[in-house]
Every structure is written in C-alpha cells, then in structure tokens.
Write a structure and sequence with these properties.
The chain is an alpha/beta fold. 42% of the residues lie in helices and 17% in strands. It contains 12 helices and 11 strands. Helix 1 links the parallel strand 1 and strand 2 (31-36). The termini are far apart. 45% of the residues are buried.
Length: 280
C-alpha cells in the first residue's frame, strides 16, 4: 500500500503531525510519501492541479489536508476537486483532516468534508479541536517565549488535542477497514483555559508565562497588521471567541473510540515539549 499525505505549504504543527504519521506508517512496513510544495517527498501544491497527477501515482490511500485557510475561503472547490482527481486516479481510501465545526455550511472546510463523504470510496473524517502544538510550534510560540500570549479567549476553556494522537488516529484510519465511514471528533481529556495552559507551560519551563485577554476587534487588527489576510484574521478570531463563549469546551471520545485508549493530557504534552527544548 502506498499512502500519500496531501496539502499545500504546511504550517509547522501540521508538518509535525505529517512527519509523525509517515514515521508510523513506514514503521509498519508501508510505503508512505509526504506530498507538499516544500519539505515533502514529492512535489504537490493544492493550488496547482498540474502537480496532482504525479503525487497520486500508485497511491491507494490518501490523507487530505487544506493547509491554507484563506485559499479555502476564496477557492472552496480546491479540496472537492482533489477528491475527484484522487478517486479517478485509483485512490480507494480517503482520510480527511477537517475541523469540529465543519458541519456548518459556512465553514471553509465544509465543501471538502462533503466531497469526501460523496466520493464513493472508503472514507474517514478527523475533526480535531485546537492542537496543543500551537503552543510549541509557530502559532502561539512567540507569545510563550515573550512571556505573554494575547488571545481573545477570556476564561473560556477548550480540550487541546495532541498532534501525536491525531497522527495515531490517522495512521489507523489509513490502514484499518473498521474506520470506514467514521467521523472522529478529536479532543484532549479535559478542557483548559488559555490561562491554565500558559501556567502549566510556565511551571514546566521555570519562566513566567501568562495569558492576556484581548478584545476580538483589536485582535483582528493586530493580525492584519502582522500580515495575516483579513479573511483569515476574522475566521481565526471567530474560532477563538468560540472558546471565550464556552462553545468549544466539550470533551469528546474520538481518540478512545478510534484507538481504544484515552488521549494524551495537556500536561503530558507540556512535559514532553519542555524536555525537547520547545521553549528554549
């Protein structure tokens, strides 16, 4: 079996998850290729259909990701078109990395979600909450290193999920028929506020790290000033204000159902990341 992971230019925490997934598959004796526009095993750009054919050659199962929120807003047909191309190329199993709120018609990942369901091949959909790795790789790491993570989340809580757990679920879904037609909502074992999360990181690193609440409109303006496209800044802010409102607090049993074990705790993620020097 050849397993291929698709997307455009990854943010770093997605790169970590894909690298971990490829390692798991190869350790099982499977042929696995990471396809991306940079740093993968084969060139693939979700925005350039001409690169799709060679990336799909010989692939029987594919892990699909939309790595660019702005592109998914402006070109919602990207993932559906890839799904169609993959099926016509002979891919017989699709695993999609989606999002907890992708059931909504207005969510940018909804078209891809629906395309996978209608693909006519075996499919599994993974819907994670916020990655714990956002704190250690790229997205929120600068704030952690500076000692203050500003986000419009108030005292709201969410059950951050470890990307290593997502990789484990993805590897199983790509190789085990029992996951066909399953939708797994993936969270950690308990919900934490950003203040609690930064406090745990501070204690593990011996540094003062705190969360500073910020007005949502101010947060959008700051993101745009940093160069984030306005559409993406607004979407990210909406997702973070879901945490503030309490609507992102639910803990799910997706990891347990998929793997037969509980998900890793945020404390385990922090201990492992601190030992690895993530916040040095």
């Amino acid at each position: 079996m050849n397993v291929n992971n698709h997307g455009g230019c990854w943010t770093s925490f997605l790169t970590t998850e894909l690298r971990a997934l490829a390692q798991r598959l190869r350790a099982s004796g499977l042929s696995a290729r990471r396809a991306s526009c940079s740093g993968g095993d084969v060139l693939f750009d979700l925005g350039a259909p001409a690169t799709w054919g060679s990336a799909l050659t010989g692939v029987s199962a594919a892990y699909l990701i939309e790595p660019d929120l702005r592109a998914s807003i402006l070109s919602p047909e990207r993932l559906p078109d890839l799904v169609d191309t993959a099926v016509h190329a002979g891919v017989r199993r699709l695993v999609l990395l989606s999002a907890l709120t992708a059931d909504s018609d207005s969510h940018p990942l909804h078209p891809g979600d629906q395309a996978v369901r209608r693909s006519g091949v075996s499919w599994t959909i993974l819907r994670p909450t916020w990655f714990a790795q956002n704190f250690s790789e790229d997205f929120w790491r600068p704030g952690i290193l500076a000692g203050t993570l500003a986000a419009p989340t108030g005292d709201g809580r969410t059950p951050f999920v470890d990307a290593e757990d997502i990789a484990d679920v993805a590897a199983s879904a790509l190789t085990d028929d029992r996951h066909g037609g399953a939708v797994y909502d993936l969270t950690g074992p308990r919900a934490l506020s950003f203040g609690e999360a930064t406090g745990l990181i501070g204690r593990a690193t011996g540094c003062v790290v705190r969360h500073a609440d910020v007005d949502p409109e101010v947060f959008v303006e700051r993101q745009v000033a940093y160069g984030v496209p306005a559409e993406v800044a607004r979407l990210l802010t909406e997702l973070l204000t879901d945490v503030r409102s309490g609507s992102a607090e639910a803990v799910t049993d997706g990891v347990q159902r998929a793997l037969g074990r509980p998900p890793a705790s945020f404390e385990q993620f922090v201990a492992r990341s601190a030992t690895a020097g993530a916040w040095n």
